[in-house]
Every structure is written in C-alpha cells, then in structure tokens.
Design goal:
The chain has 168 residues and is mainly β. It has no helices and 17 strands. The model has no long low-confidence stretch (mean pLDDT 93).
C-alpha cells in the first residue's frame, strides 16, 4: 500500500494482492473544502451519489431513487423485466415503446390521451366507461357512445356495408 504525492496529484495506491478495503459504519467522500458531499454510504442504509452537492442517485430498501433525468444516448435502452421484455428508447429518428415478451402491453388509466408532439391537439381520447374519440387535425371525427357511433363529416366507403356492394 502506498500513499504519496507526485508533485501534481495525491495517491492511495493498493498495488499488492487483494482489495483495498475501507472499514467503517458510515462513509463520506467530500470535496477538498469539506463542504460538498460527493458520496455517502451508511451501514444498513442508503448509498447516495451527488452532483454539485445535490443527491442524484440513492439506494433504497426497494431499489433506487433517481432525482432528475436519466439521460441515455440514441439507441440506449431502458430495459425492463426479467428477460428485458419491455424496451423504451429513441433510435435517433424514432421513439419506441417495444414489448418483446409474452402477453399484452397493457396501459391502465382512467382516460387515455394520444396527442401530437406539441401536446396541442388530440389524436385519440379514450374515457373509462365512456366515449372513444378519433380526431383529425384536432377535430373529433368519430366518437363512440352507448347508442353507437357518431361520425362528423363525410364517410367514404369502398367494398361492402352489411352485404351491400358499394360502388367506388
């Protein structure tokens, strides 16, 4: 074990066999002035990582807590499930929510809104126990109700309707 300064930097160098072990019940790594936390570790408790004295990642009894954003590069994936069955990522040109496992992708909510990227126009709105509305340019064009379907605007049909051939 060597502790030294080379004129530019200070070192703790474990160059032998085995690990460098720091034995303590609580561990704090701070800046040189001792007024900013960088890492805190408590026996039987959290390990917390800091950025500019602000806690960003901490272990908990149930997993981790992240404060702020999780930034991933293009094609960097958030992988969920025992076999990484659910992927959330951006390819550089498209964003994906990809279910590659067994079963369905379930979205559980009282009201589902699918809006444009600016969040200024509805595309689809589905209400629990109520209407499902499809929109064109933010204007409702098809709506379900307890009595059937309401269409706003013209209907263009090719093929058949209830067995009646419709001319194009």
């Amino acid at each position: 074990l060597q502790i030294y300064h080379d004129g530019n930097h200070s070192y703790i160098n474990e160059s032998g066999t085995g690990f460098l072990k720091v034995l303590t019940s609580n561990f704090a790594l701070q800046n040189a002035a001792g007024n900013e936390s960088m890492i805190n570790a408590d026996q039987n408790g959290a390990v917390t990582l800091y950025h500019d004295n602000s806690a960003k990642l901490a272990t908990t009894t149930t997993g981790i807590t992240v404060t702020g954003n999780v930034d991933l590069p293009d094609n960097g994936k958030l992988l969920l499930g025992a076999s990484d069955d659910l992927e959330i990522y951006h390819s550089g040109s498209k964003s994906y929510i990809k279910d590659t496992g067994t079963g369905n992708l379930a979205i559980l909510t009282n009201t589902l809104e699918l809006n444009n990227a600016a969040d200024s126009q509805n595309m689809i709105v589905a209400n629990e126990g109520g209407a499902v509305n499809l929109f064109h340019s933010g204007i409702a064009k098809l709506a379900t109700s307890s009595s059937g379907v309401t269409v706003t605007g013209n209907i263009g049909v090719t093929g058949t309707v209830d067995g009646i051939d419709i001319a194009a």
